[in-house]
Amino acid sequence: MPSYIVTLKDSATPEQVEAAKQQARDQGGKIGHEYTLIKGFSVSYPEGSVQTLSENEHVKEVEQDGEVKTQ
Fold it and tell me: Which top-level group of life is the source organism from (predicted)?
């Protein structure tokens, strides 16, 4: 299942963050890690599913999760 990192806008309230997580669940997503330093969470979706979280007015960014390397 592809995994994504969802970052919400700094102005998002806790209720709006919870609503975004519920939207992801409603679309078949499974919430993974919930971040505390930033307003965000990871979510995994089944292959071929459609995600519309990026259209949520409180979502700042949705990006595919991946390995990060430093040099």
Answer: Eukaryota
Q: Output the CA torsion sign for 33, 22, 39, 64.
A: positive
Q: How many residues does the chain have?
A: 71
Helices (H) and strands (E) in the chain, counts: 1, 4
Q: Domain residues of the chain, as ranges?
A: 3-64
67 and 25 Cβ atoms separated by less than 8 Å: no
Q: What's the whole-model pTM score?
A: 0.83
Q: What is the pLDDT of residues 17-38, one digit of tens each?
A: 999 999 999 989 999 999 989 9
Fold for 3-64, please state it: Alpha-Beta Plaits (3.30.70)
Query: In what order do the strands lie in the sheet containing 40-44?
Result: 30-35, 40-44, 3-8, 59-64
